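Notes to self after the call with IL:
- keep both proteins in one doc
- input above output, always
- annotate only the second one for now

Protein 1:
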Amino acid sequence: MRLIKQLTLAALFGAASLAASAAPNPLSVHVLDQQSGQPGAGIEVTLEQRKGTEWIQLASGVTNGQGRIPALYPEGKAMAAGDYRIVFRTGEHFARTEQASFFPRIPVEFTVDAPAQHYHIPLLLSPFGYSTYRGN
């Protein structure tokens, strides 16, 4: 009986440490094409961090079929406080859909002041305008 309790405790502690090591990625994005009402799939997105007067690329990805990149921050690294920029490369999206557009790239700058929180940056897109906000 004592061995069963020890094995049960070991399994619980193992599961807890595994869950702790699989912390969710601190940054996600979502693109929605407002004109079509469809997800902005296949849009290249880059993440940069300001270092002094320069922007250093940290990661890049392409939005999935739902217009999302659920984990844009480099895997295994803790997000630091500071200034960041996400660049949505929307020109290629509109070229694929044979639509004229005004914004070939949309840079969104934001400040991380609470690195332990999750940051979600949605982009509501149309050929001649866009909006964004901090989501959850």
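Protein 2 (the one to annotate):
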Amino acid sequence: MYKDLKPLYWWPGMKVDITDYVSRCLTCQKVKAEHRAPTGLLQPLTFPQWKWERITRLTKSAHFILVRVNMSSDILAEFYIREVIRLHGVPISIVCDRDPKFTSRFWKSLQKSLGTRLNLSTAFHPQTDGQSERVIQILEDMLRACVIDFGKNWERSIPLLDFAYNNSYQSSIQMAPFEALYGRRCRTPLCWSELAYADTKRRDIRHEVGDKVFLKVSPWKKVLRFGKKGKLSPRYIGPFEVLEKIGTVAYRLALPPEFDKIQNVFHVSMLKKYRLDPSHVLEPEEVELNPDLSYEEEPIMILDREVKRLRNKNVSLVKVLWRNHNVEEATWEPEETMKEQYPYLFDSDKNSRTNSLFKGGGNCNILK
């Protein structure tokens, strides 16, 4: 109409007026088809927080169960409890199509009693259950292949179909459903993955015969710590020479005579390579080790005292110097506990000599 009138007439707002006139035509409103996007925004489904929490979403894993078309709802419920709930628990919601089995009163009542919400697809949004439709399409193709290969015995291949589907790569999740569900790839006769996942956070350290390494030992002491860490933590002694490689991750060390009660073969995780430097002065360390490579810490003197004020009480603490450790590694311990376990530390004469030593700036070599 605008094209027909434009050569003959003109007025301000002519195109807008003609468009408004045509849009108000009753006949045109009844017969003209709209070529625009459908109206009504889609209602998104709740995103699942855990696997099999909302069925047909997240991991794309599936179970294929052989049932009959005329199977009653109560028997179907038994299959559901045995094959789904037994393995994955009660889901929060289920997305499914409007099959008569899923729209029956019995099925709805069962899910309601279990606390599961049914999200049924509609004609206005059939894509709601698109993931299930895609799985059904895959299953149909697999069943056709089984009928060709196995003939009348195709029913016996259902467990293999379940296994094959759940271990097939899915482009949407960038992995197989089995890996998405359990966190690792499934071991199969094809040996798809040779990677040892337990080794991803370990280092491959190797020592040669003749190398010198440190040996890790564990201090042990029955004293509370008030949450202190690192002061008397495990440390290394040595270095010792590597005599022989045992297997792939163990080594035999040349230990001194005082360690004759200890097995001289150690795992590589207990060793640390010694880096030689001409300035190092290696002296034998006087550490009495137990057969399990632990040693008991022994306090030698009290350096200081203080009172720790808590909300409901005061706790008396003493600063203790331990054998085989320097002054910087002294720790604060409960005075009452130390008196019970090491009463000789609280000898008045010994403590007076200790305090005079530190106040007078005595020779610190005796503390090492």
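Annotation: The chain has four domains: 2-31, 54-166, 212-296, 299-367. The chain has eleven helices and twelve strands.
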